[in-house]
């Protein structure tokens, strides 16, 4: 079962429409700062979302991820970054925080060029 969530109703509507043919996909309107919509997760994917959160909110979301991802499960974190994103939280902070947490073991970390001055950070962590 794949569960996707977003707090924006329009994003949820479009994703539901695009995934309508897939019975195993459910799309839920939810704010990840208030907890995850599912409590037992094999793979948690955060794609271009954590940079919208404050450092405190990121710490809280990662603690929720540690609670929900089963031991031996995975987290995939992907985030674009550009120096002009001044009001957002850089992906380095997420990676740094995960390095300080015994619940996570880094499997892979790549920072690759994206368009122009933008980079893409991709990190995979295993739940210990
Ligand atoms: C740049 S888009 C990325 C969309 C998609 N995850 C992707 O990788 O293509 C950021 C999305 O994060 C959602 N978002 C921002 N804060 C959120 C939160 N606290 N909980 C859930 N979704 C959030 C926004 O509504 C927006 O749709």
Walkthrough of the structure:
The structure is a single chain. The mean pLDDT is 97. Helix 2 packs across helix 3 (91-100). The chain has 128 residues and is an alpha/beta fold. Strands 3-4-6-5 form a four-stranded mixed β-sheet. It has a two-stranded parallel ribbon with strand order 1-2. It has two domains: 1-30, no CATH class; 36-127, 3-Layer(aba) Sandwich (Rossmann fold), CATH 3.40.50.150. The chain starts with a strand and ends with a strand. It has helices at 9-18, 55-68, 91-100; strands at 2-6, 25-29, 41-47, 69-81, 104-113, 119-127. Helix content is 27%, strand content 38%. S-adenosylmethionine is lined by residues 5-8, 11, 31-33, 47-49, 52.
């Amino acid at each position: 079962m794949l569960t996707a969530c977003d707090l924006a109703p329009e994003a949820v509507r479009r994703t539901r429409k695009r995934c309508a043919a897939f019975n195993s996909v459910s799309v839920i309107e939810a704010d990840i700062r208030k907890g995850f919509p599912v409590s037992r997760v094999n793979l948690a994917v955060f794609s271009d979302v954590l940079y919208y959160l404050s450092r405190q909110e990121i710490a809280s979301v990662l603690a929720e991820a540690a609670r929900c991802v089963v031991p031996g499960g995975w987290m995939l974190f992907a985030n674009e970054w550009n120096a002009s994103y001044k009001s957002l939280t850089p992906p380095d902070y997420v990676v740094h925080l995960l390095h300080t947490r015994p619940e996570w073991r880094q499997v892979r970390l790549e920072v690759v060029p994206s368009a122009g001055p933008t980079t893409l950070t991709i990190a995979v962590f295993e739940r210990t």
